[in-house]
Specification:
- The protein has a domain of 61 residues.
- It is built from 2 helices and no strands.
Length: 122
């Protein structure tokens, strides 16, 4: 590498270092501004919550009136459905017997001369 290339690379590295330093300082400055805005938003929300808590304490002190007494229900006559259910016919289910179908295929292995020689699958 000759001296010209070394000088160009050194200048590029120096320029990137300067740009990086500028970016870091801007980022930290933005971070501090955002922190201040965040603190003010938290303070406003805390004030709202304090007001709401005071309102809830006030509501707890003012108790609602007592509920009226629940009336007793009228007696219910016994259901007539029980007599009708006992007179229902009895249903008995019988499972049908299984249907077995046997199909014999000649494979030529029973010793008979089946015309196809022997041993081959059809």
């Amino acid at each position: 590498m000759n001296k010209f290339h070394v000088t160009v690379l050194a200048l590029l590295f120096a320029g990137s270092a300067v740009l990086g330093a500028v970016a870091v300082t801007r980022t930290t400055h933005l971070g501090s501004a955002a922190t201040q805005a965040n603190n003010s938003a938290v303070a406003a929300r805390a004030k709202q919550l304090t007001v709401y808590a005071a309102k809830l304490r006030q509501e707890l002190k003012a108790r609602p009136p007592a509920l009226p007494a629940v009336p007793k229900p009228a007696p219910v006559s016994p259901p007539v459905v029980a007599a009708a259910a006992s007179a229902a016919p009895r249903i008995v289910y019988h499972q049908p017997p299984p249907i077995v179908v046997t199909v014999h295929k000649h494979h030529g292995d029973d010793g008979s001369d089946g015309g196809g020689g022997g041993g081959g699958d059809d």
